[in-house]
């Protein structure tokens, strides 16, 4: 802690290249609070206890399901127990997809079962399943370049791998095949589509995830193979000119299911709002520990710690447990629409939704006039092993509609090297959570929230002053 004090005390903060002079400097009192928050967070177990409670008492909680409804009731109880105010559930209607059953197997020439899972929003196969010859493509782009004839009645297999990266950038490339494979297969008269899972592990766990047909005229059933099973199917295709697979998927859709966002606040001294949180729903294969019970635990624990340490912050801290993120960002869109008139009072927003690894980078998306504040926050986080990033933060998936509406956002980037080993799989369970990493997350979030609340001025660019006549 002495090293922390030496690093932060009286620090003149060097702003990023776009920031204006003079550089921002923390006061002695701000430095003392940052020190106290860090020390307390690194000894706090609240985030772990919240994460354990959600994954144990609720378990899997697919958007729009009965389990997600129980999770909302859990969220209200949890926020009350933590001392939050103005707790409520803001509901909305949405279509709710569910899986009923699924199976896949090679029928010939090498009969064996395959580990597969239906992708979210997939239609069903015929009740008896479908059996067809497989046509393999090494990438989505290769499928898109394929002729419009020749795939009629076949099962299209997009065998595109995902790159492992710390910041998760490989996901954006690989995830396109979830929807793209089905859409392109349907255009060409294929019977179904299967993909190599969007994930980086080598375990026999297929990765779930949502797909969307868009305005496709033909909707074909779509499933993901575990990475080892994708390898197995590719080897079978290399050994035989014709490989036949049987796929059987049964799914359901409830047209008007109820979901909702759970909200609690640490009221501030002004009417400005800082929105943080994680998403409450999860895929149904695991218990949603890293995606995203950990984000719920981290942000709620950080807000509580801030209130316990300083009392009433300058700006209200609003924790949102977003509903139905995984199946289409329904909660995020509902929140932005419902609070449209209040968005000018939303000073800042950020989400924790990239697992439970240590925070390694702070990124902002502020107006140019506010970049010295971004630099102040980044400098205060350095003793936690957090480096400064750029000013192009996304803020998180559920923050997207707010960012689009002009709300400034920030991002505390977590180490995601192993995140996509677990993402949307049966392996997303509580034992994968590192309690010490969770504490470091809470420390980073608490420090960020404190400075974001207390530093004067906003985070948007100041409006230009009209020249005097």
General description of the model:
The chain has 469 residues and is an alpha/beta fold. It has two domains: 2-95 and 256-454, Zn peptidases (Aminopeptidase), CATH 3.40.630.10; 110-242, Glucose Oxidase, domain 1. The chain is built from 14 helices and 14 strands. The strands form two sheets. Strands 1, 2, 3, 4, 5, 6, 7, 8, 9, 10 and 11 form an eleven-stranded mixed β-sheet that branches. A three-stranded mixed β-sheet has the order 13-12-14, covered by helices on one side. Strand 9 (273-279), helix 9 (289-310) and strand 10 form a beta-alpha-beta unit. Helix 2 (28-41) crosses helix 9 (289-310), helix 2 (28-41) runs antiparallel to helix 14 (435-454) and helix 9 crosses helix 14. It is elongated, with a radius of gyration of 24 Å. Mean pLDDT is 94; it is low at 1-21 and 464-469.
